[in-house]
Amino acid sequence: MTWDATDKMDTTEQLRDYIPLFYTNPNLEKTCNDELSAYILLELNSPSDLYEKYTRLPGLEYWVHCGRMMFPLLAPIAIKVLSVPTSSAAAERVWSVYSFLWSKRRTRMNAVTMEKLAFNYINSSLLDSVDTYDYFGEELDDIDLFDDTSDLDSIPDQLDVQDADSEDDDL
């Protein structure tokens, strides 16, 4: 996709409209507008090798590493704009988690509990690398439920099917 001059002018005007929303102090607003003008001039007047170096960087990376030093007031706006996800996939994923957790049996759950459940569900995969103990591993297979055979005597015998039938006949 190539941008023409009108696209850049529209974007510049939109940024200039956004600056007062970001900076309420008139002096900071003016300085940020000056930084925007300086950035545009830098793009137009940079030597080709410097221009190539900066245009190879992704936009967010440029503003985090280089732009913050050169344009300290414009950089937070650029970082905020460039860090917005370009798709709704993340939001759809969250709604999918909520619909999974919020079932017919959980309709009376309060919002705080639902938020905690969703947080745990979404972030549980982060613990996989931290907590590597296998709680359902082979160690459970080796556990003898009855260490002493005398415990087997304390288990009540099951009723014989014939005994149960004879009791029903007495009723």
From TrEMBL:
Residue ranges annotated for the HAT C-terminal dimerisation domain, each copy included: 55-119
Superkingdom, natural source: Eukaryota
Segment forming the signal sequence: none
InterPro entries: HATC_C_dom, RNaseH-like_sf
Coiled coil: none
GO molecular function, one term: protein dimerization activity
Name of the protein: HAT family C-terminal dimerization region
Organism name: Phytophthora infestans (Potato late blight agent)
